[in-house]
Specification:
The chain has helices at 4-9, 19-27, 55-63, 97-113, 131-141, 165-169, 177-182, 186-192, 207-222, 237-244; strands at 30-33, 43-46, 52-54, 148-154, 162-164, 201-204, 227-232, 252-257. It has 265 residues and is α/β, with parallel strands linked by helices. It folds into 2 domains: 1-116, Inhibitor Of Apoptosis Protein (2mihbC-IAP-1), Chain A (Orthogonal Bundle), CATH 1.10.1170; 124-265, no CATH class. α2 packs across α3 and α2 packs antiparallel against α10 (237-244). The protein starts with a helix and ends in an 8-residue tail after the last strand.
């Protein structure tokens, strides 16, 4: 009998550098399909319907930028495959042409409006201080956060972005202190990013919202995530929790069920 653990083992050690994709594919019923000859295409295959997906395609969609995913679907299974009950979250986000064009234009405009990135070495006296003192300074700048952020919600229908429900409906100007601090430079971003996740529990109304959030914060954010509260019982549970397994610092996980149900071993 195939289990998530046995399917994940087939990807090792061939996909060690892409363990994030391996976890998601194994959760969706795929095993590694590595050809005997290197010249043949490497990828994964569904254990039920034998649907083959090239490795490069899986990595681009399961680890790439979310804004490009609304242009199409990742077909992991044939139409009558029993594993279709495990939904890939982005399949429900394929918009009509008008909304997709708007999302692309908006994202392109935001990238142009962003300040240019510089790789020049840091010359600020701030970086002559010990890292512990710099972190203390960051904590003074950033306003204290609530132990619980509240529910995370989708920003709007044509976006994959998640935002706190309080921030979405808050009237007036938003406090951008933390975002401005993180956008100062790469070095400060790497050091201060932990302030977003320290002593904070992120709450989600569905595993689909959890998945979108985990993709949005990227690998650096997932490595810092400590506490999650999520409602279970959706078709996106498998792939969402497979991606959640990559959160190495996760110490608290609260699972909520809308109605009583039996949970097997």
């Amino acid at each position: 009998m195939s289990t998530y653990a046995t399917r994940l083992e087939t990807f090792l050690p061939h996909w060690n550098s892409n363990i994030t994709s391996s976890r998601q594919l194994a959760a969706m019923g795929h095993t590694c399909d590595r050809p005997p000859l290197e010249s043949l295409e490497d990828g994964s295959r569904c254990i039920e319907c034998s649907r083959f997906v090239p490795k490069a395609t899986s990595i681009a969609i399961l680890e790439g930028t979310m804004v490009d995913l609304t242009n199409g679907r990742l077909s992991l299974h044939h139409p009558k495959c029993t594993h279709l009950q495990l939904r890939f979250p982005f399949e429900a986000l394929k918009p009509d042409i008008g909304r997709y064009d708007f999302a692309k234009v908006r994202d392109r405009w935001e990238r142009k409006a962003a300040p240019p990135v510089s790789d020049s070495p840091q010359t600020s006296g701030l970086f002559t201080l010990p890292a512990e003192l710099r972190l203390q300074i960051y904590s003074y700048i950033v306003p204290p956060s609530s132990p619980v952020t509240g529910k995370m919600v989708q920003l709007n229908r044509d976006s994959n972005r998640m935002i706190t429900e309080r921030g979405l409906h808050r009237p007036g100007h938003r406090d951008l202190t933390l975002s401005r601090l993180l956008s100062t430079c790469k070095a400060i971003h790497a050091e201060a990013l932990d302030l977003l996740f320290r002593n904070v529990t992120y709450s989600f109304a569905s595993s689909r919202d959890l998945y979108l959030f985990l993709r949005q914060i990227g690998s650096s954010g997932r490595h810092l995530l400590c506490s999650v509260d999520v409602a279970c019982g959706q078709r996106c549970d498998a792939i969402s929790f497979a991606l959640l397994a990559s959160c190495k610092k996760l110490s608290t996980l609260t699972l909520r069920f809308d109605r009583p149900r039996l949970i097997g071993d």
